[in-house]
Amino acid sequence: MSYQSESLTAQAREVREASGVSQRALSERAGLTQSHISQIESGKMEPGLSSFIDMTRALDLELMLVPKKLVPAVLSLVRAQATPDMHIHAGQPNDKRFARAERLVKKLKHLYGSSADLDRIEDTLRFLRRVNLSDQEMQLVRDLLARLDRYQASEQAAPVVRDIAQNLQRLRNSIAHAAPSEPRPAYALDDGDEDA
Amino acid sequence: MSYQSESLTAQAREVREASGVSQRALSERAGLTQSHISQIESGKMEPGLSSFIDMTRALDLELMLVPKKLVPAVLSLVRAQATPDMHIHAGQPNDKRFARAERLVKKLKHLYGSSADLDRIEDTLRFLRRVNLSDQEMQLVRDLLARLDRYQASEQAAPVVRDIAQNLQRLRNSIAHAAPSEPRPAYALDDGDEDA
DNA sequence: AGACACGATACATAATCCTAGATCAGAAGT
DNA sequence: ACTTCTGATCTAGGATTATGTATCGTGTCT
After folding, report:
1. What is the pLDDT of residues B174-187, one digit of tens each?
2. CATH match for B6-67 among 1.10.260.40, 3.30.420.10, 2.60.120.430, 3.40.140.10
3. What angle do CA A103, A105, A111 make, to 5 degrees?
4. Contact partners, residue A23, CB within 8 Å, separation at least 6
5. Which nucleotide is closest to A21, CA to C1'?
6. What is the pLDDT of residues A96-117, one digit of tens each?
7. How far is B30 from chain A (nearest CA, A)?
């Protein structure tokens, strides 16, 4: 079973993992089952072309046909853009966003009293602030903070806040546990446009 | 069934046709059946990923995963090479002459086996076909093709074929290098127009 | 320890790919 | 007219994919 597609499926997996998307989450977005994705990624089964397209599109990738001669050029193009920053040192306008978020949390604590969840959020934000985030990760943070902003006044903010805290922490963990020296995904993961 | 892969399969078909390869010839090289290829190309069936890879590799194409963001860049790269210069325009009576010539070459390859020279001629013809030629240039091509026609049956066609190949390539190079189109596409693509 | 999310695996069922033939109409070449 | 080559279709049958659901072991977070 020396599949010639192993390189492609491996790339897809790298991108998925680098983006912090679980097989289950991906399966929803792509319209496939988790078990299906697992088998594809581990090379236990050869996907149909359309399944693979569904899967990669959900990862913000496009499957393209390139003349063999141009493969090296395309590769270098992709790699160049692939790892623009990642953790390397920090930031910029994001700082403002974090500052705003931290102020918001403080205000919430003042208004409704501290809660474990709010503490957790505060904590995690402090951590995330000094890590340089990929575009995708930053997008996630942005979304979560936007949600926090939206629900701050709501009556039943509690469960939402809890969910946000969880998500932030999950992101933190994925970064903290990312294999130390090796794991730069070698592939792109930035998308970054479109907010919804 | 609006498959999301139709664009890819259509592209593959274009390349196949542009290369003058029949479905049957391709089916041999790719290890698939002709009927299979027909159905894939006409969108009547969705190929498996590995079938599609077999098929495209036999066409000197690679299936690559590209971040959506880079798609336009890659596309322009690919187009730059696909269209060496293209004085654009013109599908005229010359087309017929070229078609005939290409068939002739194919026949020769079939009869006497491929040779580097025949390959070169085939290649060059494909290029010249889409270029708008001056009367003088066209005259030259006409003469060369006539010679090819004349000597095809000859015992010692080899040196003649070689000479024709050389002359055609010289013409091609003069056209390809004349155009000042772009300084440097940043990714050189030299499609082998160096003389040998 | 208990709860939970992760990926891997198992299994039955449905769906479809893919092969291996043969055939057919159309375009070309002889 | 006859031959040859092209791409499109058909038939069957065997192989593989894909779904749905459920479970398992591992690790992490409460």
Report:
1. 554 433 322 323 33
2. 1.10.260.40
3. 105
4. A16, A34, A37, A38, A41
5. C6
6. 667 777 777 776 766 666 677 7
7. 13
